[in-house]
Amino acid sequence: MRILHTEWSDGFGGQEKRVLAEAAGLSERGHYVALVCREHASIREEAVRAGLDVHTLPMRKLYDAASIIRLTRFLKDNRFDVVNTHSGVDSWIGGLAARFAKVPVLARTRHLNLPLKRNLLNFIHYLPDVYITCGENMKDHLVKRCGFPGHKVVSIPTGVGPEFFDVKRDRDAGRKYGLDTDSVVITNVGILRSIKGHEVTLKAVKTVAGAYPKARFLLVGDGPRKEILERLVQDLGISQQVIFTGFV
Hints:
37% of the residues lie in helices and 20% in strands. By secondary structure, it is an alpha/beta fold.
């Protein structure tokens, strides 16, 4: 099959990594997989490094007519069998283009576990032939609250391959982050985006640190809210307890 993934996001977190992992898995199974993203998106460089064919579109807003027209022509010229959209903006652009180009299968992966509002402007969410969620909770919401046909919605939780783990204890890791051998280490892993709610975690850290002075909190990941969170750590007076590791 010829499969096209579309991704509007400029960041590079779990969602974007999942897109690349799925593309790699499909490629290994003999399918042709390509990606459409924005020119300066972080996923572009990673996709090129992974050997994918990458094409760029401005995708400036939901109703970016120029991007819809360009993508429609691209889909017609390259005769894709499947278009899989991932973010809000590219789901509008990619969804409409796929329908205009008469692509046989349109799929939408909803990575966020946020309620979907029912209104006329959200008709785009009902265009896909299959809707993929990252958990049963969102699947149930779409079917029971939003009226999606149950046979069109499938839950496929995001997985991590065993090759990413080394179960051997890394004794240098503690020294790298200045941890004592008797430190109690609590880790939060995720891209630093507003939707992740790191502010709630950091406010809880202040309470926990008062009761457990040896506790240390590792925020693993990076993202657009890093500077904001660093300022919050300063304001809360927990700089000695919180360590930003970046991507690891």
